[in-house]
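Dear V.,

Thank you for sending over the compound details. I've combined the ligand you provided, pyridoxal-5'-phosphate, with the protein sequence from our construct and run the structure prediction for the complex. I'm sharing the raw inputs here so there's no ambiguity about protonation or stereochemistry in the SMILES, which I know was a concern on your side last time.
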Amino acid sequence: MTQVFTPPPRLLMGPGPIDADPRVLKAMSSQLLGQFDPSMTACMDLTMAAYRDVFATSNQWTFLVDSTSRGAIEAAMVSMLEPGDKVLVPIFGRFGHLLCEIASRCGAVVTKIEVPWGQVFPQEQIIEAILKERPKLLALVQGDTSTTMLQPLSALGRVCHENDVLLYCDATASIGGNVLDTDDWMLDVVSVGLQKCLCGPSGSAPITLNDRAVSLIQGRKHIEAGLRSDGQEEGQGRVISSNYFDLSMIIDYWSKARLNHHTEATSMLYAAYECARILLEEGLTEAIERHELNGRALASGLAALNLRLFGDQQNRMNNVVGVYIPEDVPGEKIRHEMLMDFGIEIGTSFGPLHGVIWRIGTMGYNARPDAVLKTLACLEQCLLASGHRLSPGESVAEARAIYRAASDQPTQAPLEAVK
Ligand SMILES: Cc1ncc(COP(=O)(O)O)c(C=O)c1O
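Below is the predicted structure of the protein with pyridoxal-5'-phosphate bound, written out as structure tokens.
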């Protein structure tokens, strides 16, 4: 006998995933369509168009990779890199290490530059490294959830273009909650996931590639035997060493050629499209402002709990805040109590920050005052019970004052207008 599985009610206030918007869950429960049903291909085209707006790009090749976010990172790298290629990775957290790891598995020769976790690079430092190393690819993360830091990027694309360097950016955790201007910043390839500020589940990875990146990848196109037809153009370059993540074939699947490369994850396509619609209906600027306001209220409320904020606050992501776990409290016990007594999930971090900081997110569907205020109120209870010194009531009052001040400003969107 199998058991019914009913997920318990939770408020996911960690670094992601977060609770999906009910609209996304509803879209996912729609019936499936055949692979090449005109309605299915119309939905794919609509999704491409919507994600062009989400990425702020006019790139034709803007589509979904059927995988979690790291699948799109892997697809970008394996499709662009050949053994021996030089890659430069600025690391300011766990996900920079992931980029190195994936590039190395592609046989690339990786040069790392690092800053301590909790800081970002001055852009000049990255530019200096580009000019010194002259890599084929600069790969970096925009918002590294492991440290909550947001790397400024706007000046890097021009330098890369002038020096014939490709620029890949992982914006999984930042898109929708922080400014990302793919075309204005001259980013060649950007990939993301749905499970942070885009209000969806993980399992689909939107990606955008400009002509520079696409022409490199198309030069390596080798269509698998059994799908190849007469007159189909093949590249001269080295075969891309993954079939599943071969972006030249995936592009053909999303193109008019409709190459039967894989079976599209239809329910995730519906989810991804609805995520984009939700964001675009709200407006990119409005969504970013909402994340900024909720992130600021959360950070101030945490500081009012007599907690020390982690990292360079000038370069913090809008959607996730790190705080040091005070030495006088049992960090994991408090996370457990938050989950079991209040149904609220908060995160710790990785590597050197594991057990040192908590990461508390307010993103996507959960970038809302009620979610932030509840989290602060419950965390206060847990901290008080463990003997941490704080002024009861101050945290929620501090966050509410920020919301009230914001709603008094005529330029702010109404706070309750999450949807
Ligand atoms: C910046 C960043 N990149 C990549 C990933 C990996 O995403 P996934 O677990 O969806 O593969 C994450 C996940 O948290 C992330 O925050």
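A first observation: The mean pLDDT is 95.

Warm regards,
I. M.
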